[in-house]
Each structure stands twice: as C-alpha cells, then as structure tokens.
Write a structure and sequence with these properties.
It is a single chain. This protein has 277 residues and is of the alpha+beta class. Helix content is 34%, strand content 26%. The protein has eight helices and 13 strands. The strands form three sheets. Strands 8-9-2-3-10-11 form a six-stranded antiparallel β-sheet, covered by helices on one side. Strands 1, 4, 5, 6 and 7 form a five-stranded antiparallel β-sheet that branches. A hairpin with a 4-residue loop joins β2 and β3. α3 (129-140) runs antiparallel to α4. The longest helix has 16 residues, at 199-214. The chain is elongated.
C-alpha cells in the first residue's frame, strides 16, 4: 500500500461543557501530528492512523458538518475505501458520540475502546493495556481542562507499554470557537514534537510554555499594582531596560496576559522576577 504507516496510539475527545474538541497522539513515526489529528469546533474531531488515509480527516469533518453522527461517519468513510482493512479511525461528533474502526488487517496489537466523549485506538502496540490506559485515564480526569486531560492520557498510555517500536513524535490539538490567539482563532492548542527521544515529555514541556504565554488567569487572582509591589515591578523593569510593563511583555510574548496598569497577572509577575534575577 502507498499510504503512510502511522503505527500509533491516539485519543479523540471532547469537553461539551467547555465546547472543546481535540486529539492527542504518539507514534514511532516522523511528525505524526501532520497526519493523524483533525478537529473543528462544534463539529467534531478525528484521528486517522495505521495505513493512514489522510483524506479521512477533511472528508470526515465535512460529513460531521452535514450532521452525520460519529458512527455514521466511520461507516461512510470505511465503506467507501478499498483499503479499509488496513485503516484505523477514531471519531467524536458535536454531541459527544464516539466511534472507532480497526481494520482486520492492522498490525497487532491493534484495537480500540470508546466511551462518552472519547475514542481511544492504537496499532502495533505492546498490548491492549495501552488503549485501556488511554480510556481509563480520560474517564478518571474529568476535572482537568481537555488539553491537560489528553496529555495525561498519553503519559499513561506510554507507561502501559505504548508503541511496540518505540517513540518518536507526539502531538496535541484542541479547538474551541474563538478560543485561540487574541480570540481570533479557533485553535486553542496545536503543539507538535516531530522527532524526539522522549516526545511526550517534550510535548508537556512545550505545553507549559504555551500555557505561560497564552493561558488565562482569573481576574480575581491578579495582584493590585500598588505600594511595595508597584515599586518592585518598576525596579525590575528598569533593571531590564524597560519603562513599562507593556513594553517588556511585548518582547517576552506575554502581551495577552497584560491588561492595564492597575493589576498584574501572577504568571507575568513570576516571569518578570525570573527574567530580572
């Protein structure tokens, strides 16, 4: 077959309360995030793998957009594909219904589990424990934001055995209507580690940076910029050669966490203290 062999494990999921849909994936495959994950806010999410058919992504989202359920999308995509026996597919739709497909010719171990709001699947795995860990971890962490929940799923799956061939790349994609940069993008998180000895650890590190730059602290947690704290902030900015918090934050890509001069986000304060010594 001419299609790329994406031996991997993935989880496709949603958080209906937050109106977020996403995919997390790891594989012994270069840049797995460029092939497997697809998502559209308030439409659904898809993972296409094994002898992957990349058209399952856009075609599946188009079917979801038309109102087909996750089960119907899986049935439609695989029934129209002569290579379906070699494919693996996971889908979650706008209502949280999930469905998966593991072709009978996928390399062992291969299989999937589905539940409310998620579809977990993998192939060329050490064993079924990997997919079971994806499902169990997702179900046990409903208190976490979706992106963190998905990352925890990858960690657990790898600890349970993971891809039989080892590790190379990992990715997490989460979408939310107007939830991305400056409220002008639907991509809340799209992070990829394309080639690394420990891609999941690196993905978690990069997500930490992303959260620091683009995360949101509750306004009630911001600290009033007055008295000793204002003096400290001004001294630290002066030490760094800046005359305003806005100017420094712009250089450090923290401008999304700065809003006015009367209060400071604790994350920004920690970053300023770290930068100024």
């Amino acid at each position: 077959m001419a299609d790329p062999v994406v031996a991997t494990y993935s989880i496709v999921a949603c958080d209906l309360e937050a109106k977020q849909w996403g995919v997390a994936v790891q594989s012994k495959f270069l840049a797995v995030g460029s092939v497997v994950p697809w998502a559209e806010p308030e439409v659904g999410a898809i993972a296409t793998q094994a002898y992957a058919n990349p058209r399952y992504g856009p075609d599946g989202l188009a079917r979801l957009r038309e109102g087909l359920s996750a089960t119907e999308v899986v049935e439609r995509l695989t029934s129209e594909d002569d290579g379906r026996d070699h494919r693996q597919l996971g889908v979650v739709d706008a209502s949280g219904e999930s469905a998966s497909w593991t072709g009978p010719s996928c390399n062992e171990w291969a299989g999937h589990l589905t539940g409310p709001g998620y579809a977990a699947q993998g192939n060329i795995l050490v064993g079924e424990e990997t997919v079971a860990a994806l499902a169990a971890t997702f179900e046990a962490n409903s208190q976490l934001p979706l992106v963190q929940r998905l990352l925890e799923c990858l960690v657990a799956a790898q600890a349970a055995g993971g891809d039989r061939r080892g590790q190379q790349s990992a990715s997490v994609l989460v979408v939310q209507r107007d939830g991305g940069y400056a409220g002008l993008s639907d991509v809340l998180v799209d992070l990829r580690v394309d080639d690394h000895k420990h891609p999941i650890e690196e993905l978690r590190r990069i997500y930490g940076l992303h959260h620091r730059l683009f995360g949101i602290s509750l306004r009630e947690d911001w600290l009033p910029l007055e008295g000793d704290l204002r003096v400290e902030v001004e001294e630290r900015l002066g030490r760094l050669g800046y005359d305003s918090l806005d100017a420094w934050a712009g250089v450090e890509n923290l401008e999304e966490r700065v809003d006015g001069e009367d209060a400071i986000d604790p994350v920004v304060l920690d970053a300023l203290r770290e930068a100024s010594g």
